[in-house]
Structures are given as structure tokens and as C-alpha cells.
Design goal:
The chain is an alpha+beta fold. The protein has helices at 19-25, 49-64, 66-73, and strands spanning 6-9, 12-15, 34-38, 41-45.
Length: 74
């Protein structure tokens, strides 16, 4: 378990993430993290949950309409 300290950053409040956590998240300075509320608490993720839902919907459509999409591609 890693404890994070809440600190002042200019006029705001922030948390400094250790390099090990940034590495596990596969992010670096300037990247965006998304905060998701889950039943077990708060989750930080580099993946946009709304984009994930859009991709899942697109994959479903591509599976269902595979033949029509193949014809359109010809």
C-alpha cells in the first residue's frame, strides 16, 4: 500500500504520484487521468470510461453487421 500526501499546488490542492504508480498506470507528466467511483472506492485510470463504452458499442455493431460492412468496404 502506498500513502499519498495531499499538498498545495499554487492556489489548488493536489496529490503527488510516485514514479512507481505512474509507471503502473503507464502515464507521464501531461497525460490525463480519469477518476471513477466504484463500489469499492475511487479508481484512477488513464482510460476514458465513456470512450470504452463507445468502443464496445462499435464492436457489437461490427459483429452484428459484419456482412453489410464487408460489402460496403468492397
Amino acid at each position: 500500500m502506498t500513502a499519498l500526501k495531499i499538498t498545495t499546488v499554487g492556489n489548488s490542492t493536489g496529490i503527488v504520484l510516485p514514479k512507481a504508480i505512474l509507471s503502473k498506470l503507464r502515464v507521464e507528466k501531461g497525460d490525463t487521468l480519469f477518476v471513477i467511483e466504484t463500489p469499492s472506492g475511487i479508481e484512477l485510470t488513464p482510460y476514458d470510461p465513456s470512450f470504452s463504452m463507445q468502443i464496445e458499442a462499435a464492436e457489437l455493431i461490427m459483429r452484428e453487421d459484419r456482412d453489410a460492412l464487408k460489402k460496403l468496404a468492397e
